[in-house]
Amino acid sequence: MCSARAMAWxxxxxxxxxxxxxxxxxxxAGPQGVLHSRLLEAVPFVLAARCNGSLDPAALDLDxxxxxxxxxxxxxxxxxxxxxxxxxxxxxxxxxxxxLGDFTLVELGGQDSKVIQxxxxxxxxxxxxxxxxxxxGRYLENMARLLGVELGDLAACHEDPVExxxxxxxxxxxxxxARLMEGAPLxxxxxxxxxxVARRVAQMVRRYRPRTLVFCGGVALNQAVVELCGRxxxxxxxxxxxxxxxxxxxxxxEPDAI
Length: 258
Prior knowledge:
With about 260 residues, the chain is an alpha/beta fold. It is built from eight helices and ten strands.
């Protein structure tokens, strides 16, 4: 299992890429912290890398002298670049961003999810799911599109939620439509969507009985989901300063980057 007793910012600038299923996260970190970051659409990025045969640092405004490490999808598109596991990347990023040694890390991205149990600054166990988009960013995007609202509006609703049980990115639409036809208030339906994600998170971490939950990934930017996770799970929920960049930041901390 991964271990890291202490984590510090890299002494020299290093670059990290987290190739998610929907978004590519780029981070450059140095002694003073995060120096540069960008979010890119995943499909155009991977297609360009495949067409060129390799990654072009200049296209990302990267200094070729900066060591570069990546994690996530698209391994075949990045020849000549060192890759590390997503568990290692997110673990190291969360360790630095929180300063904690004991926590349960939940990472909900665009289409997948991860849970990492950290004790004494070591990864003790982890669970990943990249086969189902239930409760992920894709689910929230689909529900917002169905309801005709912005993601920011959805993220603000957590009071008086209606009961929504299906967090499937596809079949959840049927349940939402049923609530609309029943005449439920739109704000309550949006709160119900967020509560369904919080309950999904509670199921994922149930085996660990977390005292502190560290929430990363794009879904961590949904304030209502974060608030409801605290209520449902009954523990402190901490969102680090850069939740969406956590994996890319962890790549910057890899000591053997090339």
